[in-house]
Amino acid sequence: MGKELAIQVRHIGKRYKIGQREPYKTLRDAIANMTSAPIKLLKQRNKLVKNRSSQEYFWALKDISFDVERGEIMGFFGRNGAGKSTLLKILSRITMPTEGDITMHGRVGSLLEVGTGFHPELTGRENIFLNGSILGMRKGEIEDKFDEIVKFSDVERFLDTPVKRYSSGMYVRLAFAVAANFDSEILLVDEVLAVGDSQFQKKCLAKMGQIAEEGRTVLLISHNLASISALCSKAIVLKGGSIDFLSNNVNEAIQHYLGQIGEISKISLADRTDRQGKGQIRMIHFAPYNDKGCEQTIITSGQFVDFRIYYNNIVNIDRNNIISAINIVTQTGPLVSLLNNQVASEPFESIPGQGYISCIVEKLPLVPGIFTVNLVIKQNEIVQDLILDAATLIVEPGDFYRTGKIPPSSPGCVFFDQKWSVVSV
Amino acid sequence: MKNIAKHECFEKNIGSIIYIKPTDGWIPVDLGELYSYRELLYNFILRDLKVRYKQTILGASWAIIQPLFMMIIFTLFFGKFAKIPSEGIPYPLFSYAALLPWTLFAEGITRSTNSMIQNSGIMTKVYFPRMILPLSGIISPLVDFAVAFGVLVVLMIYYGFAPTMNILWLPAFILLALMTSLGIGLWLSALNVQYRDFQYVIPFLIQIWLFASPVVYPASLLPESYQLIYGLNPMAGVIEGFRWALLGMNPPSSMILISTLIVIILDISGAFYFKRTEKIFADVV
Questions:
Q1: 3 state SS of B200
Q2: Domain over A269-396 is classified CATH 2.70.50.60
Q3: Whole-complex ipTM
Q4: CA of B24 to nearest chain A CA: how many angstroms apart?
Q5: Count of A-B CB contacts under 8 Å
Q6: Residue A145: how many CA atoms within 13 Å on its side-chain side?
Q7: How far apart (Å, rounded) are the C-alpha atoms in residues B116 and B52?
Q8: Which pLDDT score, from 0 to 100, does residue A150 have?
Q9: CB distance B20–A185 less than 8 Å?
Q10: Using a CB-CB distance cutoff of 8 angstroms, which residues of chain B are in contact with residue A90?
Q11: pLDDT tens, B124-165?
């Protein structure tokens, strides 16, 4: 039973016409294309065919092949735009591949978004039935699972309230509960575990594990490396639309992915063109350094970190009242913290023409994971240089609490220093 | 016990295999698959009904107000002032019997065309046969139709019109009206995903089509030689059929055959066009 094949993917490719992702075209464009087509055709005859095809098309996925056995949980990693979501959309039949073929055994349930088709005006009860049937459940099935769904989502008291009055937490819990209780043989999940509070996330992870134990197959995209490594039996790292790494050893795949990210963040800030600001002061490099002054690709929770922003003060301007900020956000968007010299100390009154701004964090409170850094330098409240997505911080587990042991990976974003005791009164 | 049953059902499902392969050209409609998604169709219709009149004061009476007021305006201007003949039938009854299938049709094509855009969020996140969406748009006005039909009954009693055996044919004409709006709805909804121009075309199209159909005037107003060509407008056949079935006016001539033929062509071509463009819906919507 364990060797039965659930999904077979062969040479899948997805090509988009550049501009096809535009919201929509107008009839006028189509008519214009139609009339100008013969002229274009004549023009193109003179050009190399190869040249043309590389300009007008873009491959979101190319030559993807893999097998998934029944009861396996397979994880997908990759940076934004690597093709993870496109692959899941093809597997769930939302969009067609341009080439290749896929065979899947059994019903497919997809959870690409929490609460697809929920209608704000309808009550929780009505939405359970609507959402269930959108996902492909029959009425009888939903009725059988109804109590379980309600219990899992914890919204029993509000079942007859329109979901527009729900808190976002309740909404997410109910939506996930419906999808998780769908007995499809194959479940496709895209980054939905990132929602909800930590207790609920734990519940979701446990549910995923249970689903696989029942012999069902799960394909999972997540930025939460800890959850992937805990759940998955196999992992694929995607890069630029193709498979970069495939392994039965999930931790190996995670290491590979981390290496991939490390490489990218080495691209010099000086070469970045996607920056905003006046540009009289330009950031040329950013990295965490350790207490010995060595640059680090990977940092650990609880370590001493010196974040350095190297800059170049090109034009001889008044170098006073300089504010610099390091904005740390999680991969899914929420802000973790804003490190800012104006708030934490004072604006710099004078800075040399060339050098680095140093921000020392004695004990890094970030939990293991991947964080994105946005950087900004301002002078007299005028933005001089701003780079979004300037760098990626890879944080590995470390002994934050100085207990001599590494804390088991915890949900959330940060560690607190904490002192516990029992007092008798 | 329950576990065993679950397991059996699970094994049965294993039998179903899904192949995904790029397709090209004209694909026939998978009616079996469409049928297996009938509950989703029902749920979409139910959702539209529940949501439609939420936060309105008059609620479902809107289903009556629209054709009723049109009937009053038509009676006043076309019946009373313009003195358009109604073949001995009181003008309110004459126009209302036509407005019923007309509203069913007009609402059907409007809702089905907009259904694709309104549900784009669902379309890009879950697979289901996309045809469910325009279908729900076409069927849901049937409920408003049933409500508005009540007014017709009142009008018939008021004017002392007893239905004849012809009324047994009414379901056939309702079906023809639905099939007409299905054909147009499939074409327009598929086109509207790609070219948003069509959402502007619709109100305009409906206005023109209303006057090209025998709603405010009888088909007999047209010369005999034009009758067959008039049948090319399927709503002409539908409306004449309604008046015959309900009010016992002229039986629909061979015009109805032409209308039926046109509707069949519209439905089949619409279904093929829809299927052909369906695969790119999620990419362009």
A1: helix
A2: yes
A3: 0.82
A4: 10
A5: 128
A6: 22
A7: 17
A8: 93
A9: no
A10: 20
A11: 888 999 999 999 999 999 999 999 999 999 999 999 988 888
- Kindly determine whether residue B128 and residue A136, on different chains, have CB atoms separated by under 8 Å: yes
A90, B127 contact by CB (below 8 A):
no
Q: Does A28 touch chain B (CB under 8 A)?
A: yes
User: Which candidate, A13, A66, A61, places its Cα nearest to that of A240?
Assistant: A61
Residue A369 confidence (pLDDT): 81
Higher pLDDT, A36 or B234: B234
Architecture of the structural domain at A5-262: 3-Layer(aba) Sandwich (3.40)
Within an 8 Å CB–CB cutoff, is residue B204 touching chain A? no
CB contact under 8 A, A104 and B18: yes
A141-163 residue pLDDT tens = 899 999 999 998 888 999 999 99
pLDDT given at position B7:
38
**CA-nearest residue of chain A to B11?**
A106
> Which residue of chain B is at minimal alpha-carbon distance from A100?
B21
Residues A195 and A114 sit within 8 Å (Cβ to Cβ): yes
Q: Give the confidence band of B181 by pLDDT, cuts at 50, 70, 90.
A: very high
Amino acid at B101: P
Beta carbons of A133 and B196 less than 8 Å apart: no
More confident residue, A116 or A104: A104
What band does A2 get if pLDDT is binned at 50, 70 and 90? Answer: very low
pTM over 0.80: no
Mean pLDDT score across all residues of chain B? 88
For the segment A101-111, the average pLDDT, to the nearest whole number, is: 89
A window 213-232, beta carbon within 8 A of B: 215
User: SS3 for chain A, per residue?
Assistant: CCCCEEEEEEEEEEEEECCCCCCCECHHHHHHHHHHHHHHHHHHHCCCHHHHHHHHEEEEEEEEEEEEECCCEEEEECCCCCCHHHHHHHHCCCCCCCEEEEEEECCEEEECCCCCCCCCCCEHHHHHHHHHHHHCCCHHHHHHHHHHHHHHHCCHHHCCCEHHHCCHHHHHHHHHHHHHCCCCCEEEEECCCCCCCHHHHHHHHHHHHHHHHCCCEEEEECCCHHHHHHHCCEEEEEECCEEEEEECCHHHHHHHHHHHHHHHCCCCHHHCCCEECCCCEEEEEEEEECCCCCECCEEECCCCEEEEEEEEECCCCCCCCEEEEEEEEECCCCEEEEEEHHHHCCCECCCCCEEEEEEEECCCCECCEEEEEEEEEEECCEEEEEEEEEEEEEEECCCCCCCCCCCCCCCCCECCCCCCCCCCC
Instruction: Please tell me which of the candidates B17, B19, B198 has its beta carbon nearest to residue A101.
Output: B19
Check for a shared fold between A5-262 and A269-396: no
Instruction: Spell out the domain ranges in chain A.
Output: 5-262, 269-396
Cα distance from B119 to chain A (closest Cα, Å)? 8
Whether A69 has its CB under 8 Å from any CB of chain B: the answer is: no
Query: Would an 8 Å CB–CB cutoff place B40 in contact with chain A?
Result: yes
- According to DSSP, the residues that pair with A386 across neighbouring strands are A276, A376
